[in-house]
Structure formats: structure tokens, C-alpha cells
Write the C-alpha cells for this entry.
Amino acid sequence: MSTSEASDPSTTTGAEVEVVSIEINSQQDASTSVQPGQRVDLYFEPVTERGVGWTLTGGSPETTYYLVSSFSESGEPTWTDSINEFDIPDIAIGGAGPDPIVIPDIATAGDYQLCPESDRRADLCTTITVAST
């Protein structure tokens, strides 16, 4: 199992890394470029209810990562590449955000679908591009 906690996004590259903000709603495709290990703040329409779990699927070879925003019990965004060894808290949150997540530091370059872990909110999926390091 690969798990990471992102307490300081700058620790990944040794230089300060900008936090990326993505506005997610059903009418927008973010198509935002991010770096492996980078923190991403997700923003929503104020009435959007969602959980803390997200999936990030794509890259080459295609991989699925499981992400948990900082609203989890640990207070820090985390990720794993094995859902069998990871408990995604069953927490519902609302409001505009931000919901901080972290892009896995082992994510390969390519296009990914970022979606809520729950199929109930597939309307919140968006495309992001993980850039090569």
C-alpha cells in the first residue's frame, strides 16, 4: 500500500509549490494541470453536499488512486492506491469548500478523472492533467 499525508506541499520538490484551486460543478470541466504531490483545493457551489472520498483515475498505465480530503479524522489530505487497505470515512459535508486533497506523489503524467468516491455524485467529476516532473 502506498499512502501519503500532505502536511506541507513544498516538501515534495524541495521548493514552494503553489496550491491549485479547482471550482467543481456540473457545468464546468476544470482541465487543470497539477504536479504529483501537489495540494489541490476543491471549491463547490454552496449547496453542494458531498463526502470526503475521491477517486483519481487515469495515467499510463491506468491507475486508480483513492483520496480523502482534509475533512477526514486525520485533518490532512491522504491517498492510497489500494482501496482494500484504506477506510474512507462516511462523512457528509456541504458548503463551498475548500476541500483540500493531494495528488499522489507517484502519479504518472497524463489525464485523470477526479470523481467523488460515491457514485451518487458523479455529476461532480472533472478532468485534471498530471504534468510530468
Observations:
- Strands lie at 3-5, 20-24, 32-34, 39-44, 53-58, 63-68, 78-80, 99-102, 110-116, 126-130.
